[in-house]
Amino acid sequence: TPTRLDVVTLFPEYLQPLELSLIGRARQRGMLDVRVHELRTWTHDVHRTVDDSPYGGGPGMIMRPEPWGEAFDELVPEDGPRPRLIVPSPAGRPFTQRMATELAAEPWLMFACGRYEGIDQRVIDHARTRMEVTEVSLGDYVLFGGEVAVLVIVEAVARLIPGVLGNAASIVDESHSDGLLEAPMYTKPAEWRGLEVPEILLSGHHARIVRWKRDRALLRTAQERPDLLAALPSEFFDEYDRSV
Ligand code: ADE
């Protein structure tokens, strides 16, 4: 059965990229079941109000809880299976390749896209009584809303679902799969505008090439992301020492 992805948003058009390219193809082939819902469906007043000013004062508007509550009631029936709810928020847990791997194993993910200054906290508290809820941050910066974050999370997760990506081998070696950045890559021609492909890659010495890639990955990680290097387990360096 396909992995089910529900997105509740004020702006369904924002999710249109999910119809394109590899995600669109995975949907057509029945590997992903993506359903985008407009939150205003669950309003009842003439203005279809979804927000109001914050209790306690402060700038901006907060999303009212009632439409969210009705959306979850309808999309997640009491007697059936429960999705894992992902709420994009700059106050959430940092999104990583590890989290993407974890989410790719779920049969059903639901995404709640906040806008304005955020969603009434009781929406999350109440949802937690019915399903597993994870607030997820893309990084330490602020977007207008959760829609773009959902595009990012769905893209990172979908390509880890078996069958969605053509070549599963490309997942094993890529940046962040082993905690390091990837070594630089080259293709033909061997010389271009006076710039040459590193000779070792043309040498055919498989074992040396593997070591070169590993060393360049380490160097690049040390230069660009010393925080990743510091987070590696000490066994990584023990193994490295033994290999040189
Ligand atoms: N919504 C607004 N900013 C965000 C961020 N940095 N990550 C996830 N969702 C967000």
In short:
The chain has 244 residues and is an alpha/beta fold.
Task: Give an overview in words.
This protein is of the alpha/beta class. It has 2 domains: 3-158, 3-Layer(aba) Sandwich (Alpha/beta knot); 174-243, tRNA(m1g37)methyltransferase, domain 2 (Trp Operon Repressor, Chain A, Orthogonal Bundle). It is 36% helix and 18% strand. It has 9 helices and 9 strands. It has a 5-stranded parallel β-sheet. A two-stranded antiparallel sheet has the order 3-4. A hairpin with a 2-residue loop joins strand 8 (191-192) and strand 9. Helix 3 (97-104) crosses helix 5 (147-158). The radius of gyration is 22 Å and the shape is elongated. The N and C termini lie far apart (47 Å). The mean pLDDT is 95. Adenine (ADE) is lined by residues 88-90, 137-139, 141-143, 146, 149.
Total count of domains: 2
Which architecture name of the largest domain does CATH use? 3-Layer(aba) Sandwich
CATH class of the largest domain: Alpha Beta
Strand percentage lies at 15-25%
Please name the defining characteristics of this protein.
9 helices; five-stranded parallel β-sheet; two-stranded antiparallel sheet; 9 strands; 244 residues; alpha/beta; 2 domains; Trp Operon Repressor, Chain A; 36% helix; binds adenine; Alpha/beta knot
